[in-house]
Amino acid sequence: MRRMSLVGFALVAGSSACAHTQSAEAGATPEQAAAELREHHRHHNQGGVTQFIAMSLDTLGAAEAKRPQIETIQSDLYACMTPAREVEKSLLTDLASGVAAGQIDEAGVDATIARLGPAAGAAHACAASSLNHLHALLSPIERAALVDKVQAHYEVWRQVNHEAEAGGQEKGGRLAELADELNLTPDQVSQMSNELRLKFAGPRTSVFEPKQAEAHLRAFETAFASETFDARLITANANGHLASHGARRMALFYETVTPILTPEQRTTLAAHLRQHADHQPVVAGQ
Amino acid sequence: MTRNLDKTLKGVLSAAALMVGLTSGSARAQFEVVIAPPADYLATTEPTYFEGHAAYWYGNRWYYRDGSAWRYYHDEPEYLREYRGRRAPHRYFYGRGREGFRRR
Asked: Which of A14, A33, A284 is nearest residue B93 as measured by Cβ atoms?
């Protein structure tokens, strides 16, 4: 828990220094990378902690000689999440169709999300062998770096899917980013903000249990940082809870804002959701 | 309400960490106030490995974890200075519509 608090400090205190960093890419800013990560965690919930681990391999920067094996392991982890990814694709496609039509089929969305949790949960056992290989492959400092990255992904996920206030209009928030994306009018933003506050206090909202997620994270982090590791012994599994909560929150957001959009805005948003539906993770190095 | 309390708690703890840094013994310790790079930075940036830990170039300093704490080098090590001269930190972009969500 102390690690979580320390990273939390950074979220509060570190943003000003961020402006001084340089990106490897001309025209791309650190803020852009952060915004894109937030958008990703708002829309892609396929495997909870297993997904955070797979994503952490994107930037682990391990020794060059290990990269082919790491890429194989990452590919295997994503293969474990394929059933959940298919369900997520269906959800995003249904949301896109509903947005385009001006009315989202809530019963259909609920049924799809009900399938997502078990599919994401199954990725945990499926990934055990790959995680054992990963532990054997990495040096202790690479393992420690991986643990930091998994924790960082969870911090961002938790911020956008749990801590962020529904209907909040803060910069970088879901509503503010939708406003930029669709050129919402101030009246639309205000109306959406009010509706989101009401809807997220209502019966269709999802309650996130951080303790469940953090028990899984702690179990993985403690075990993975040790000299000996067997992923099969990690019994905590919050993958399904993380995935279904993130998906529920996303669906409720779009259900709420859709009636307030113009036809042109709905068309644009539907296209964006279809792009998310078509997302296929790329293994590092490919 | 929970979120506000959480923010308040983090603010108090940040201030406490800063005071510990300012009142501790050596000048070097003053620059080892424990503030990690933001989570979104750690999650999207490739570190370099040096002196037994992953180091991140952030805010014009090299940060690294030391046990449960985060520290930074007050005096930039030569190896890291040269490394930084050769290449900027690799960032990973996850944006919708990017090819494979990857640009380096």
From this structure: A33
